[in-house]
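Input record (one chain):
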Amino acid sequence: MVNLVFLVNSWLASFSQPGLCIAVAVLLHYFLLAAFTWMCLESVHMYLAFVKVFNVYIPKYILKFCIAGWGIPAIVVAIVLIINKDFYGNGALSKNKPFSSFCWIQENIVFYISVVAYFLLMFLMNTAMFITVLLQINSMKSKAQKRSKLWKR
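The corresponding structure, as predicted from the sequence alone:
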């Protein structure tokens, strides 16, 4: 969906309808954050699969992941909309760049907090999960090598 909204964004921005542009910018923001969130949830799933292999039962696991995957981005976008819906829009309507219209976040601070900081948080969590999984796999490999040496003796 993020790709689809991104591809039709310039075309929809060309209609010069502020409400339509805000809706497109909100959808683009939401689906981008949802993609980041699902990427992070995949790392949590990888952690549970490789590190916490046994004795892990999470009731309604998929439902909780779906609520987090679709709900957290919705909360972020709702907060931005509640603060000021005019953070979204088309700021590239200048005479120097007539073909550069694009519906997106207009305030740099809002962009850096709601997109860049959000991505960095998800990326740091992914990195931590990845390192943890690598350490777990490495420790399993070293244990297996020790066992094989014992069997050879």
